[in-house]
Fold this sequence. Notes:
- This protein is mainly α.
- The protein folds into two domains: about 45 residues, Arc Repressor Mutant, subunit A; about 130 residues, Tetracycline Repressor, domain 2 (Orthogonal Bundle).
- About 70% of the residues lie in helices and about 0% in strands.
- The chain contains nine helices and no strands.
- Helix 4 packs parallel to helix 7 and helix 6 packs antiparallel against helix 7.
- The N terminus is likely disordered.
Amino acid sequence: MQYRTVVEEPRTEKGRATRTRILRAASRLIGERGIDRVSLEDVEREAGVGRSQLYHYFDGRDDLLRAVIDTTTDAVLGSQHGLLSDLDSLEAIDRWFDGLVALQERRGARGGCPIGSLVGQLAERDERTRAALVSGFERWEEPLVAGLTRMQEDGRLRRDANVDWLADVTMAAIQGGLLLTQVRRDPQQLRRALDGARAVLAGAAA
């Protein structure tokens, strides 16, 4: 299931800048305080807009939250720029894994997974919001599925290997590793989880 917030893009540069400013303000406040402690008034004050402007770009609080999920996913994928483009070899996957661990080292093992942190706050809100979260993880997983599929087509991955299952195992390792890294303030927690995923992937190699 894929879902992305469908909105009509503002037609003017000023409109696009205003919408982006609102989204950035909401994302920043939610990241710092949590969803339950952020009101529309907080977002308006942070973004420097009025209620009429906010409702011009977003159809209420839930629509804004779903847009924040999309924006957060964009940021997560952007932080892995250059590492997700060609995951069609174990060496490329190793570089991706190394990049994920290095990112946690630079962050001091703080913050965990931005998408994952939204799951705990939003997954039970409503089906459209849950679908937006599902879509976020699917967008993250897509490059790995594509890379593993190419490996299978080229004969470097066993024909009986389930590519979707391998990708799910890898994403579960990333999420679990990020959670333990955040709690224990130790990037090696992520490294160990990724080593486990790497062993599974290597076991599926032809």
